[in-house]
Every structure is written in structure tokens, then in C-alpha cells.
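Mods, move this if it's the wrong board.
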Amino acid sequence: MNENSMKKSIIILLSINFCILILSCSSSTESSIKNNTEEQGEISTSLIIESGKIYSIEDLIRIGWKKNKKLDNSSFQGTKGIWYGFFNRKDVEIWIYDSHSNAITYGKPYAEKSISKKPTNKDPTNPTEIRYYAYAVVGNILMLCESQLAICEQLIEKLD
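Not the wrong board. C-alpha cells:
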């Protein structure tokens, strides 16, 4: 081999190695970003819908929510009633207010606090240790959902 062809061979090998290095770095970065996003859990934990409707506990029972017991609501301003029950085999607590505005004003702060509780904290309205992970406000109703927002969404779809 002469000197020129040797230089060309070295340049080609270096170029190939450089391309491989660039490709391997970019794919690991994309993978890292994707996994990081998934780990951060861009999971919705709340939903607020101003439906313009006023619902009653009977509306929820009619669409398949199973009432278990009425809870004491005397310590919770603005509530007309609080009920513990089930929908699709998941715990769903229902808080009824006289308006959407009151559900937001009085219910939303409690819901935010409730879904951020550690699993060992007890809910003052329910002596069992239930962990709510999501909530929804639709019309005059606050829903606390045991496992995920999808349970609340399924219940809301049946309301409309």
C-alpha cells in the first residue's frame, strides 16, 4: 500500500468509528429521555368538568355506583352529603355539594390533600385505611377514586 491509500483507509475507518459513536450516543439519549418521562409518571390525578348540572346520589346509584354507607359530613363545609361506595370493584367516595363552585371551593383542597396522603394516614371520614390516588369534580360532585383517574372517568361517562 502506498502512503495515500493508507491515509484514505485511516480516514475512512475514523469516519466510520465517529458515525458509530454518534449513533450509539443519540439512541441512548433518546432511550434515557423516554424512560425518564415514563418514570416521572405523567399520570393524571385530577379532572374538573363544569357540566352545568346538579347531580344527586340517586343519579350515581342509577348508573351503577354501589352505595355502601353514608359518612358524617358535619365537619366538611358546604357538603350536602358524603357517601362511600364502589364502582367497577374500586372504592369511590362521593361528595355532593349544592353547586360546582362549592365543590371547587371546599372539595378540591380536601381532594388534593387526600390524594397526597401516605398510605398509612387515615381518612377522617372513613376509619379504614383507604388510599385515593385521583379525584374528579363534575358539576356539584367530588369523586375520590381508589386506584386511578380512569375509574372516575368511567363513572362520569355514564352520568352523561
